[in-house]
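Changelog note: in this version the structure field was regenerated for every chain. One regenerated record is shown below for reference.
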Amino acid sequence: MAAPNPNNVKPLYKDKYYVYCLCKPDGTVFYVGKGKNNRINQHFQKWHLEKSYNKKNMTIRKYGNSVKREILCYFENEDNAYDFEEWLISIYKIDSEGGSLRQYAKTRNQFSEDFKYVASDQSRKKTTPEVENLVKRVYELYFTECENKYFISEETGASFSNIDSWIKGTKHKVLYNKYITSGLIKKNREITKEFTLHKKYTVKGLRQDREDWLAGKPTNEIAEKYETDTSTMLLIFYGKTCKGLFHDYSQVPERYLKRKNKSKWLEVRTY
């Protein structure tokens, strides 16, 4: 059973409505909401963040657990909670109107102009400027820089499933067609088989370790870091496993070239 998140806020009353706010690390309020029970904490759950790439969710993904959560006031009935929520929104204001709030709803029945634009076309329902920038960056990393999905996920915070659907064009077809026309998406990109990376490794970490290895750091020291053996690390560094992890396989430390009895997999590989 997963341990409870220490950042979760526990409401004082289970049967009362409350109005709450979410703040950036510097204290700027970017979301005001109304809820009950665990509503304030649901914004941070993985399923909630991945179901929609709206402005509020993108802000939470950016700051993570540094986002401050605060329940401001409790109410006996929902209407009073709605009234207080609407008053706070009128004070802080939606960002599209010069305020700090990263949300669309101004009142329970009134939405900002940018929400009307986003919701006007079902195919563009989630295509906010933030989402387009994220999807475009994924395209750049995959089609232009030929990065693997592990690195792209680490770099952008996007899930594997979203990355896969974006590069195949099954999601955000408007953006997909737009960037095919612009030439950013190259359908003839050479696709290498995606490798499986153990959870104890990260692409950035392994790339830095390989740089250190090329500069002379002993393989056994790097292997100890990952609690594995030197053979496993050498297989990774030479591209026998996790092929496509590194961009250049032509560099080989001189200390390995001088070995008299090199095994076949230690030979220099160029791609």
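Spot check on this record: The chain is about 40% helix and 10% strand. The chain has three domains: 17-120, 129-182, 203-266.
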